[in-house]
Amino acid sequence: MSGLIYFSALFIAISCSQARWLRVAQREHYLAGSAARFAIRWWSSSLGNFVMLVLMLLLAAATFPLSASSVGVSLVAVIAPFGLSLRGRTSKLVWTRRLRLLAITTMCAWVLPVAIVTALTTSDVGVRTATVLLVLAPVLVDLSMWLTSPIERRLSERFVTEARRRLSRVRPLVVAITGSYGKTTTKHYAAHLLSLHHVALASPRSFNNQAGLARTVNEHLVPGTEVFVAEMGTYGRGEIRKLCEWIPPEIAVITAIGPVHLERFKDLSVTLAAKAEIAERAREVVLNGDDALLQRLVEPLRAQGKRVSVVSASDVNADLCVRAEGEEIALYRNGTLLGAQRLASEHRPPALSNVACAIAVAVALGDDAMECLREVGNFDQPPNRLTETTGSSGVSIIDDTFNSNPAGAELALERLAMVGENKRRRVLVTPGMIELGRRQYPENRRFARQASSICTDIVIVGRTNRRALREGTTGGIRLILAQHREEAVAWVKSNLTDEDVVLYENDLPDHYA
Q1: Fewer C-beta neighbours within 10 Å, C or N terminus of the chain?
Q2: Contact at 8 Å (CB) between 432 and 465?
Q3: What domains lie within the chain, and their CATH numbers?
Q4: pLDDT at 1 > cutoff 50
């Protein structure tokens, strides 16, 4: 009877623990290894969590009665690590088909060994086994992701096959866009320009992987669509090549190469190679020539017989250049001024290289370059990418919460300086930047140092980059520490008025410590 009680306690504990780590897996796009990686981060994130980890390990390894060890481990697994909730505050667990399969597989990975050991030995040994496997809950989730990945690939191929057939029936010209950053904004601009003279469809939001693009095609590509603008993302080599096998682009665009997802890519040369896959099937390639790494692709691609358009936001001798000149933005082609459009700085898109890429796409399809330039003033910023609103207290808000790269952060600070020129307080709210590999700490420190020359206040959200941001803050900046975004927003509402401006730079889901 006592064995049944212990098994019941352990079953409840593994269910709670699985909910916690399954949520992490879902937010990390079901990448095997992500649950264990975040478990290490969380258990080491604070002294309290580290103490709880040590306690759980000691209890699991103890030889004293089961009542102390199994129940103790169960309690720790339910309540800790502190800060990583079961349901989620900003990124709740969503019970999709894929998650249900993963949850069943993970539970089987716990129940089956326990049942076998109990049947072959004694209930006490079974309880010990269940206790040890409870400690290894994140590993079980990772193992289950690895086991179910072939099933998921097989299921996703059905949707890809359907999308492939639809593409072959509708036959739109495909414009494929990638880059470490700027790809969503460039897609947004290109779709706007192309819709002036073509029936165009763009993949929504950040639907840039196989599942998202297949869903876009299957649900939104209708007969008569002339152009499909597809954003393509990647976490490693081979992924974009696979996308282009069933969405072959006529025109490929690479916006930038930078230290985004560097934890996975490890090196920028790997990032470049992975992004360059988008050009393999294209007849025309648009490259941001302001990026030194992308300059490496120009001659090799031209040697392959591809037409390469090098664009810029500064070099007038580029194939196409869109640059700021006082109150105007000017358009140049190979050193020749085509014209200029008066556009006040507050209405100017923040990254003109993205504008240049979009205009180059439209020109490649036969549209007039100057008409495209005149349309720039009508661009809307994609949501959460340097969009400007006014809060209930009158505070000016710059929302850049979907950005997490050094170049974009620098642009955001420039916008904060411009909007806040005559403001009483200029406030930055940020958790810093992530997935920059070894560069994460120095980049966040540098970001804080740049912000210190502009801001009056910096609100650091969470613990992930707190140390680097604090170290980079200089001068008489007022520093506020918030445990999570809701606390930071509450501080803004309580302390800022219509005389102030706040920049929300990046936002991390709550599975980050």
Answers
A1: N
A2: yes
A3: 2-151 (no CATH), 171-378 (3.40.1190.10), 387-505 (3.90.190.20)
A4: no
